[in-house]
Amino acid sequence: MRRRRRPGAGSGARPDGLVGPSGAPFFRSARDGGAPVTPPVCGETSLDRDTRHLVCVLDTGHDGDHQDARGTRWEPPRTTLVRLRRRWGRTHRVAWTGSYWVATARDRRVRWRSHIEPTPDQLEADLRRHTGHPPVPAPRGHRDRL
Predict the structure, then answer these.
(1) What does each C-alpha distance from 126 to 50, 75, 97, 116, 145 come to in angstroms?
(2) Does residue 89 lie in a domain region?
(3) Cβ partners under 8 Å of residue 91, min gap 6
(4) From residue 128, how far is each of 54, 77, 108, 131, 133 by CA, in Å?
(5) Is 31 exposed, middle or buried (0-12, 13-18, 19+ CB in 10 A)?
(6) Is the pLDDT of residue 139 over 80?
(7) Residue 32: its pLDDT value, please?
(8) pLDDT per residue as tens digits for the range 58-112
(9) What pLDDT score does 141 carry?
(10) Residues 68 and 90 occupy one common structural domain
């Protein structure tokens, strides 16, 4: 058990300055005889651009982006999926399998129909390389006239 002061201590930090390895304050539990315990961490995993494994060390139920012990931040998969579907949804079906990002072309005649990558950045780069930039959506209510 380490004793150190956390930056910004005073806003919910323990008065004795006990903090866990993630910087979160220790909490004592009556169930285990008052032994110090840390609150559970999120544990959401992801891969960075170099496909290194990242694990979120923020408290369970946090809002917003995830963050690993080195300070690397990433957005939740559901937010990324919404962004990718908004950008590529007219030409591809985009899905997150829990391990890989998958984009399948809606047109069966295209040369590169399936794209499978471990990170969303790699998937977008692959889509741009094989299909060009995402199509610009037409304004609502307008149709192309020949």
Answers:
(1) 15, 20, 17, 9, 32
(2) yes
(3) 105, 106, 107, 131, 134, 135
(4) 26, 20, 18, 5, 5
(5) exposed
(6) no
(7) 52
(8) 888 888 888 888 888 888 888 999 999 999 999 999 999 988 999 999 998 888 8
(9) 58
(10) no
Q: Are residue 92 and residue 122 in the same domain, yes or no?
A: yes
**Residues β-bridged to residue 93:** 104
> Amino acid identity of 117?
E
- And the tokens for 60? 């369970």
Place of tokens 């993630």: 22
Dump pLDDT digits (tens) for 6-47: 554 444 444 455 555 555 555 555 555 665 566 788 888 888
Total structural domains within the chain: 2
**Residue reference for tokens 């809002």:** 63
The span from the CA of 31 to the CA of 99, in Å, is: 37
For residue 89, give the 3-state DSSP assignment.
coil
Range of the domain at 89: 77-131
pLDDT band, residue 144 (cuts 50/70/90)? very low
* 88 and 68 housed in the same domain: no
